[in-house]
Amino acid sequence: MAQSINMINDLTPINENWSIKVRIIRLWEVPNYNNPNVVDSIELVLVDEKGSRIQATIRKLIMQLLSNMVKEGSCRIIAKFGLISNIGKHRANNHSYKLNFFFKTIVRECEDVQLPLHGLNFTSFAKILKNEIDDSVLV
């Protein structure tokens, strides 16, 4: 029996048996603080078919296992991951949680033209000038 697909806005840290179908809309490498030539993690922004976004992290220990499965613009089914609070001064989106990849995390290719290509949410320049935005979330 196939596992059901969950939406990003339904995710909570109570369960580690989630499965999501997403497009990787942004991907970047985070260098080591002391040695910028060494990559400490890969950060991703994922979007589901409803346009909900979540940030994800692939830590250095498992980068070699999963780095060939993550490519900006690609669609993936991701299962068996963890969630932590999305806190910090600079967050990629306003989702309450951030997805963490584990050794047991499963990443499979999929094709889906229904997934948004960009997942952009525009903020008006007027709101920026009036300081009516949450400046802990990237604009």
Write structural notes for this entry:
This protein has about 140 residues and is mainly beta. The chain is about 10% helix and about 35% strand. It has 2 helices and 7 strands; from the N terminus they run E-E-E-H-E-E-E-E-H. It has helices spanning about 60-65, 125-130, and strands at about 20-30, 40-45, 55-60, 75-80, 80-85, 95-100, 105-110. A 7-stranded mixed β-sheet has the order 5-6-3-2-1-4-7. The radius of gyration is 15 Å and the shape is globular. The chain starts with 18 loop residues before the first strand and ends in a 10-residue tail after the last helix.
Strand order of the largest sheet: 5-6-3-2-1-4-7
Indicate the structural class: mainly beta
Number of strands: 7
- Number of separate helices: 2
Alpha-carbon Rg, integer: 15 Å
Low-confidence stretches: none
Major pleated sheet = 7 strands, mixed
Distance between the termini: 41 Å
How much beta, percentage-wise?
A: 25-35%
Fraction in helix: under 10%
Shape, principal axes of CA atoms: globular
SSE sequence, one letter per element: EEEHEEEEH
Topology readout:
Elements: E1 19-31, E2 39-47, E3 53-59, H1 60-66, E4 75-79, E5 82-85, E6 97-100, E7 106-109, H2 125-129
Parallel strand pairs: 3-6
Antiparallel strand pairs: 1-2, 1-4, 2-3, 4-7, 5-6
Please tag this protein with its features.
139 residues; mainly beta; globular
Q: Summed up, what is this model?
A:
This protein is mainly β and 139 residues long. It contains 2 helices and 7 strands. The chain is globular.
